[in-house]
Design brief:
alpha/beta, Rossmann fold, 2 domains, 13 helices
């Protein structure tokens, strides 16, 4: 089967390849200065990045990518963790700025966290970044200490997998919280690179592996986590996928590698981290000469420009996994837009979760 960059008949594909145009549009529309100004007026001790699933992974990426830059502590706290043990987090010891991410803004845990904040931390300011104007994150944000960032309607993916919603929510937060990021410059640059790299991504999708590993350092390690999830989701679990950090991979997880396992290394621009990435690639090619080992990043097999922060390269790294996973899903004979169709096990918006009352 030949793959190319022509229009393919899936919403998930259209949404994935539309990311560059959305980033270009959003680069001039995102109200970064207004948002930074609002945050400066709010009283808080630390910043929490919250969400579920892919929306939670955004927090991990941001915290790792902003390490050493923030003036206040940053925490990645999935709503799924807070909802399970609300009083362990919302205990009055700290006043957080809660940054909620959500594509639909209507998942069970999103609704629960909004209720819990009203109940246990009503004074905590909230910044809700969402793609859905009709979701709870948007509709319940009209209070003095709450602010809404509503992304362009095109980011509200209709497919099962989060693609443009993930990247645009992430880049919005980068613009707000990374003082070194100028979205008017960064987003068009990333858009140009994504367009340039798309044919190479499609070429790599020609051969479907038996299993796959994604690794990287710092924020690219958590990009690897999202990449692995995309493969698991779009293959409906038929392609086992693992993620780890570059240095952590040797400490047991490398046992996942078997004949037919592909390994993708997201190469860092960070001057120290990139040395370890290069060492791992060299080691893997020696130890597994028959396995496909692919590096993405500066001077990699798929070459990208070096970036001031590895955080900025995350949409390109995850974009590779999005493209690969879409094509492999089709090769497996699945419905790319709903890989779990007919199984009744996973759904686009998680809503069938019983939320228990908080113990007094």
């Amino acid at each position: 089967m030949t793959f190319h960059t022509d229009i393919l008949p899936w919403a998930t594909w259209r949404e994935t390849v539309s990311q560059p145009d959305i980033w270009r549009q959003w680069s001039t529309e995102c109200p970064v200065q207004k948002l930074r100004g609002w945050i400066a007026t709010q009283p808080f001790d630390e910043i929490w990045f919250c969400g579920a699933g892919t929306s939670a992974f955004i927090g991990d990426i941001l915290v790792a990518g902003l390490e050493g830059q923030a003036t206040k502590p940053l925490r990645a706290l999935p709503t799924t963790d807070i909802v399970a043990r609300p009083k362990d987090y919302l205990n009055g010891h700290k006043t957080p700025l809660v940054v909620n991410f959500g594509r639909s803004g209507n998942s069970a845990e999103t609704l629960a966290i909004l209720d819990l904040l009203d109940q246990l931390a009503p004074d905590a300011p909230q910044l809700n970044i969402t793609c859905n104007p009709k979701g709870a994150l948007a509709l319940r944000g009209n209070h003095a200490n709450r602010h809404i960032v509503l992304l362009p309607d095109e980011t509200r993916d209709s497919g099962f997998a989060m693609t443009t919603s993930f990247s645009t929510m992430l880049l919005t937060a980068v613009g707000i919280f990374d003082d070194g990021a100028v979205l008017e410059e960064l987003l068009p640059s990333l858009a140009q690179e994504f367009d340039r790299l798309l044919p190479a991504f499609c070429d790599l999708a020609r051969v479907r592996p038996e299993r796959i590993v994604y690794v990287g350092s710092g924020p690219l390690a958590f990009a690897a986590r999202e990449a692995a999830l995309k493969t698991l989701e779009l293959s409906a679990g038929h392609i086992p996928a693992l993620w780890d950090s570059t240095l952590g991979f040797r400490h047991g997880p490398k046992s996942f590698v078997q004949p037919g396992t592909q390994i993708v290394v997201f190469m860092a621009s960070h001057p120290q981290a990139k040395l370890y990435d290069a060492d791992l690639v060299k080691e893997l090619r020696k130890q597994f000469p028959d396995n496909p080992i692919v590096s993405l990043g500066p001077s990699g097999d798929i070459d990208t420009p070096p970036y001031q922060r590895d955080l900025w390269a995350v949409p390109l790294a995850v974009g590779l996994a999005q493209v690969l996973s879409i094509h492999w899903s089709h090769q497996l004979g699945l419905n790319v837009d709903d890989p779990f169709a007919g199984q009744n096990t996973l759904s686009r918006v998680v809503s069938n979760v019983r939320i228990h009352e908080v113990a007094q």
